[in-house]
Description:
The complex is a heterodimer. Chain A contains 8 helices and 6 strands. Chain A is α/β, with parallel strands linked by helices. Chain A has a 5-stranded mixed sheet. In chain A, helix 7 (176-188) links the parallel strand 5 (165-170) and strand 6 (193-200). In chain A, helix 2 (77-91) crosses helix 6 (149-160). By secondary structure, chain B is of the alpha/beta class. Chain B has a domain at 75-193: Nucleotidyltransferase, domain 5. Helix content of chain B is 31%, strand content 15%. Chain B has a 5-stranded mixed sheet with strand order 4-3-2-5-6, with helices on one face. The longest helix of chain B has 18 residues, at 118-135. The termini of chain B are far apart. The interface between A and B is large, with 58 and 53 residues.
Amino acid sequence: MPKVKLPRKSTNIDMTAMCDVAFLLLTFFMLATKFKPDEPVVVKTPNSISEIPIPDTDIMLLTVDPKGRIFFSIDNQIKRRTLIDDINQVKQLGLTDAEKELFKKGASIGVPFAQLKSYLSASPEDQKKMNDAASGVPADTSVTNPNNELATWIEGARTTNPRLRICIKADGDASYPNVQKIIRTLEGWKIFRFNLITGLKAVPYGTAAYVMQQGGRSK
Amino acid sequence: MAEMDTSSSGGHKKGPGVKKGKKLSTRIDLTPMVDLGFLLITFFMYTTTMSKPKTMEINMPYKDPNLKIEDQTKIKASTAITILLSKNHRVYYYEGLGQDSSKSPEYHATNFAPKGGIRDEIISKQKAVEELKRQGTLGPKDQTTILIKPDTTSTYDDLVNILDEMSINDVRVYAIVDISPIEQENIHTTETENGVK
Lengths: 219, 197
């Protein structure tokens, strides 16, 4: 049999195309990435079938960690400044301008008013330590209770920004009485509509919601 | 291609004594660059949070301390089912509203399992209400009503789960109500009777 001579091919591949693709994807992911904001506590939210996305602006976030500590924050920095000015005046905290600026740029607050000044003046590392040891914002089921500081925060935030949507982000392991405190406080301020932040899970097959979802799609 | 034309033809020939400069290839090995590119892609892919968390909207019933009891909407006991959330994700339920103080309702224990859990009970209740509507015992406006009473030992997880069941089963009328001491007591007796710690 005559031997078929195959032409020898070079094993060098041109990497340019691959490189192009790699950097294209890299650019995409770099632009699409939105780093998570610094949160004082890690919260694992339960899942629900609800598909309503969180509004981007005007949100008040009430975080409840597994131990039941409550953390408070609102989103807009200008509104944060107004809020801390108000709170400072009402509660006579004696915050300096620098401390107010720190509040404006900071994350959630989980300390009582009495500790707010020392918390804001602390360094970021100390703040982290304080967050671990913090008691959370004191709350109660009644808004008229003077110890219900959460009520003061909520009222203050609502005056600075009346369009605030209230989102409760609680850990699945947080016990109900702690969540109840928030709900009762909100009810005390005549807020009956609020959002619970949850993960997403699939609609179980064959249920009423499943039928509705299918029907909605075929429309 | 990323190459430059280095074959500079057309130049005049140099003399015999002139040394020719060594031609260097302009091809660069791009493999390390690709490696780096993919490494960074992997990093960004892991750190990206593409899906935003979702929210669940809840409406609490309007509460006014000045509202008289007579003015409040009456719920018919035959449309209602009361669900009690207890510890360890256990769920108790009974038919009706539990307002009849003469006899305590029968408590049933269940859980959040997709089959044979609380969902099946809600669905069967809905069917029973539909049946009563057909018979004319209930008016056309009556709907299945669910009262959710979380015990102090329940977690937020339970609350979200039960609210989720409401939307899964399309229960329109439901309310989160405070648990009464009698009900807590009843849960406790049911637990001891069944040897649950």
